[in-house]
C-alpha cells in the first residue's frame, strides 16, 4: 500500500511474531488462509474429508514466504485461528497438529513460545530438536502436564526469560528441572493465580533452589505468591545481581532483610504493608533505583506502625535514590510527613511519575479531606521537580475547585497527566475547569479510573 521497498522491509518485521498484536484473531481469516495455504494437497484432502473448511488459495500465489520470517508460537492464538476451519474440538485438534508440523519445518529458528492452552507435545516433532535449541523466551502456566516441562528441559538450555502463571497446586519438580538445565536464565517471573489451603510444606522449595543455582545470571525476579514460602528467605539474599525485584517480605526478619543487598537494583516493587522491609531493601541498594512501586493493598484494616514506617520509607528514598523516576508513596497527613515529602521532591529531581496515597486511620471528615488536598497541592507547587509529568492521587484527600484551579494556575512543569479514582472530578464544574487547562496546555490528560488502575504503575495514561 506504500511501495515495494517499504513492503519488503516491513513484512519480515510483522511476521517475526504475527500472533502478538492486540487484535481480534477470530476475524483474522487472512492469517488462517496464509498458514493453511502451506499445507500439502494430501493433507488438505484429508482435513477436508474430516469436515474442515480450508481456503482454496495456492501457496504459489503468496507474495512472500511468510512462515520463513516467523520466530514465535502462541498456542492461544493458534487455537483461535484454527477454530475458523471447524467448530468441532477434534477437527481443531487435527488442524492445530498440522499447523505445528508446518511451523517445525518452515521456521528457521524459534525464539519465543507461549504455550498456555497448548494441546500438542510439539517437542516430539522430528524437527523440534534443532528448532528448540534457539528458544529464548517461554511463557506457560502450571495446568500443563509435567511431561511438557521435562520435554522442553531435554531440548532447551538457552532460555533467557521464563514466565509462569501458577493456576494449579501440584508438585513443581518438572519446572525446577527446566530451570536447572538453563545456562543463561536472566528473567524469571512467577505469579500465583490460586490459593493454597492447608499446605504444611514449602510448595516452591524446588523452584527456589533451582533459581539459587542461577544466582550468577538471574537479573530480574518477579515472584508473586499467595503462600509465603520459607525457602525464599534463604534464597533471595543469594541473588545479588538483581536489577528487578518484585515480591513480598511477610516472613522476613530484620536480620534476614539486611542480608538482601542488591547493588545493581533498578526496579523494586512490593506491597504497602511491607514498608519497613522496603526501607531496608532501598537502604541496601546501590543508589541506582529508578522505579519504586508499592503494589495492590487495602487500608480497611489499618497497618501497624504505619505512621513511623511511612516516614522512614520517605527518608530512605530521598537518602538512597536521588535518581528515582517512578515512585509510589503512602503516608499520613501529618506536618512531619508533608515536610519529609517536600524534602523528597526537592532532592529527587528526576521524578517523572509519582503516586501519592494519603491514608488516615480514622473516618475522615469532609473538612479534613479538603485540608489534606490543599496542603498536598501547595507542597507540589512549591517543590515539584520540573521533569514531573504524571501524578496519581489515592484515598483520603479532596481538592476543592478553588484549590485545584490555584494549583493549575501556578504549575510550571511539564504538561501534566493526572489520574485519580474519585468520581467527583467528573462533575460539570470540575470538567469545565479541567478542559480550560487542557486547552492552554497545562493538563495533558485528567482521568478518573478504578483504584487498581491508579495503583498499577504499568497502567498508562
How would you sum up this structure in a few lines?
This is F-box domain-containing protein. This protein has 461 residues and is of the alpha/beta class.
Would you write up a description of this structure?
The chain has 461 residues and is of the alpha/beta class. The protein folds into three domains: 1-109, no CATH class; 136-241; 252-461, Ribonuclease Inhibitor (Leucine-rich repeat, LRR (right-handed beta-alpha superhelix)). The protein has helices at 4-14, 29-36, 41-49, 75-82, 89-106, 128-132, 146-155, 173-180, 205-212, 231-235, 254-258, 275-283, 306-320, 335-347, 366-383, 401-410, 428-439, 451-455, and strands at residues 72-74, 112-114, 137-141, 161-166, 187-192, 220-224, 244-246, 267-271, 291-295, 326-331, 353-358, 390-395, 416-420, 443-448. Strands 1-2-3-4-5-6-7-8-9-10-11-12-13-14 form a 14-stranded parallel β-sheet. Strand 10 (326-331), helix 14 (335-347) and strand 11 (353-358) form a beta-alpha-beta unit. The longest helix has 18 residues, at 89-106. It is globular and about 80 Å long.
What topology emerges from the helices and strands here?
Elements: H1 4-14, H2 29-36, H3 41-49, E1 72-74, H4 75-82, H5 89-106, E2 112-114, H6 128-132, E3 137-141, H7 146-155, E4 161-166, H8 173-180, E5 187-192, H9 205-212, E6 220-224, H10 231-235, E7 244-246, H11 254-258, E8 267-271, H12 275-283, E9 291-295, H13 306-320, E10 326-331, H14 335-347, E11 353-358, H15 366-383, E12 390-395, H16 401-410, E13 416-420, H17 428-439, E14 443-448, H18 451-455
Parallel strand pairs: 1-2, 2-3, 3-4, 4-5, 5-6, 6-7, 7-8, 8-9, 9-10, 10-11, 11-12, 12-13, 13-14
Helix pairs in contact: 7-8, 8-9, 12-13, 13-14, 14-15, 15-16, 16-17
Amino acid at each position: 500500500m506504500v511501495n515495494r521497498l517499504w513492503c519488503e522491509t516491513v513484512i519480515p518485521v510483522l511476521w517475526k511474531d504475527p500472533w502478538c498484536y492486540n487484535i481480534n484473531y477470530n476475524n483474522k481469516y487472512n492469517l488462517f488462509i496464509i498458514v493453511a495455504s502451506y499445507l500439502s494437497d494430501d493433507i488438505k484432502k484429508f482435513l477436508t474429508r474430516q469436515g474442515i473448511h480450508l481456503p482454496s488459495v495456492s501457496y504459489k500465489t503468496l507474495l512472500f514466504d511468510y512462515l520463513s520470517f516467523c520466530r514465535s508460537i502462541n498456542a492461544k492464538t493458534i487455537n483461535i485461528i484454527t477454530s475458523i476451519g471447524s467448530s468441532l474440538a477434534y477437527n481443531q485438534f487435527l488442524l492445530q497438529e498440522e499447523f505445528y508440523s508446518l511451523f517445525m519445518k518452515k521456521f528457521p529458528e524459534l525464539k519465543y513460545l507461549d504455550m498456555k492452552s497448548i494441546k500438542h507435545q510439539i517437542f516430539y516433532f522430528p524437527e523440534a530438536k534443532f528448532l528448540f535449541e534457539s528458544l529464548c523466551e517461554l511463557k506457560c502456566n502450571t495446568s500443563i502436564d509435567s511431561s511438557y516441562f521435562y520435554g522442553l528441559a531435554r531440548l532447551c538450555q538457552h532460555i533467557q526469560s521464563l514466565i509462569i502463571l501458577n493456576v494449579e497446586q501440584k508438585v513443581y519438580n518438572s519446572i525446577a528441572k527446566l530451570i536447572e538445565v538453563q545456562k543463561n536464565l536472566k528473567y524469571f517471573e512467577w505469579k500465583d493465580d490460586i490459593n493454597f489451603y492447608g499446605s504444611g510444606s514449602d510448595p516452591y522449595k524446588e523452584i527456589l533452589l533451582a533459581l539459587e543455582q542461577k544466582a550468577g545470571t538471574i537479573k530480574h525476579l518477579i515472584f508473586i505468591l499467595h503462600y509465603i514460602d520459607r525457602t525464599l528467605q534463604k534464597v533471595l539474599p543469594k541473588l545479588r545481581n538483581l536489577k528487578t525485584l518484585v515480591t513480598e517480605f511477610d516472613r522476613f526478619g530484620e536480620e534476614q532483610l539486611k542480608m538482601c543487598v542488591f547493588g545493581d537494583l533498578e526496579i523494586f516493587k512490593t506491597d504497602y504493608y511491607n514498608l519497613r522491609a522496603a526501607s531496608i531493601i532501598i537502604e541496601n541498594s546501590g543508589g541506582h533505583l529508578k522505579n519504586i512501586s508499592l503494589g495492590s493493598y487495602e487500608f480497611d484494616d489499618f497497618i501497624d506502625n504505619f505512621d513511623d514506617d511511612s516516614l522512614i520509607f520517605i527518608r530512605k528514598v530521598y537518602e538512597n535514590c536521588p535518581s528515582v523516576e517512578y515512585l509510589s508513596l503512602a503516608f499520613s497527613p501529618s506536618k512531619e510527613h508533608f515536610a519529609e515529602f517536600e524534602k523528597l521532591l526537592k532532592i529527587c529531581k528526576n521524578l517523572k511519575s509519582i503516586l501519592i496515597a494519603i491514608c488516615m486511620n480514622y473516618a475522615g471528615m469532609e473538612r479534613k479531606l479538603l485540608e489534606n488536598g490543599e496542603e498536598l497541592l501547595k507542597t507540589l507547587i512549591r517543590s515539584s521537580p520540573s521533569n514531573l509529568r504524571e501524578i496519581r492521587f489515592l484515598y483520603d484527600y479532596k481538592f476543592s475547585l478553588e484549590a485545584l484551579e490555584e494549583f493549575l494556575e501556578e504549575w510550571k512543569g511539564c504538561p501534566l497527566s493526572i489520574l485519580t479514582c474519585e468520581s467527583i472530578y467528573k462533575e460539570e464544574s470540575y470538567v469545565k475547569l479541567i478542559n480550560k487547562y487542557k486547552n492552554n496546555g497545562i493538563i495533558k490528560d485528567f482521568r478518573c479510573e478504578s483504584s487498581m488502575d491508579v495503583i498499577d504503575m504499568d497502567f498508562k495514561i
